Amino acid sequence: MVRFATLSAVVCAFVAAVSASPVASETLERRQSYTGRGTYFEVGLGACGYTDVDTDSIIAISHDIYNGGEYCNRYVEIKDDSTGITQYARVRDECMGCDADAIDMSPSLFQSFNEDLSVGVLTVTWEFMSEGWSP
User: Fold this and answer.
1) Per residue, what are the HEC states of 66-80?
2) Among candidate residues 123, 102, 130, the one with its CA nearest the CA of residue 41
3) Residue 50 and residue 113 in contact, taking contact as beta carbons nearer than 8 Å
4) Is 95 inside a domain boundary?
């Protein structure tokens, strides 16, 4: 009977330890921030296959990151480094001429950083939100 009680205690301790184990690192999503140029473009039919208009909060990401559309419809958080204003937008296009850390924004998104289009370029820090996230 003592052996059974000891064995039961060991099994219970093992089950408790296993169920409290951390999530494997390969299942966690690593978020990376990018800092680069934020410009604007006249939107239309994007590389993700959607037709958008200038008033939609969308961006185009560089060819280096686009990766065949892996991030289409994914939300990003964008912060204007000079003002601290933060906005959210969806990836809907690929920017062939953008540096890896740069993004192209719809005109209304660009203006939402309290900037006139004549400014042309902002310095922004941005990152992908978790898949399935929306504002």
Assistant:
1) HHHHCCCCCEEEEEE
2) 102
3) no
4) yes
Q: How far is CA 120 from CA 39, 40, 46, 62, 95, in A?
A: 6, 7, 21, 18, 16
The model scores a pTM over 0.85: no
Domain that holds residue 123: 33-128
Does some domain include residue 91?
A: yes
**Whole-angstrom distance, CA of residue 21 vs CA of residue 114:** 47
CA distance linking residue 102 with residue 106, whole number of Å:
14
Residue 82 belongs to domain with CATH number: 2.40.40.10
pLDDT tens profile 67-104: 999 999 999 999 999 999 999 999 999 999 999 999 99
Amino acid at 7: L
Number of structural domains (the chain) is 1
Residue with tokens 């719809």: 106
Over the stretch 50-77, which tens digit does the pLDDT of each residue have? 999 999 999 999 999 999 999 999 999 9
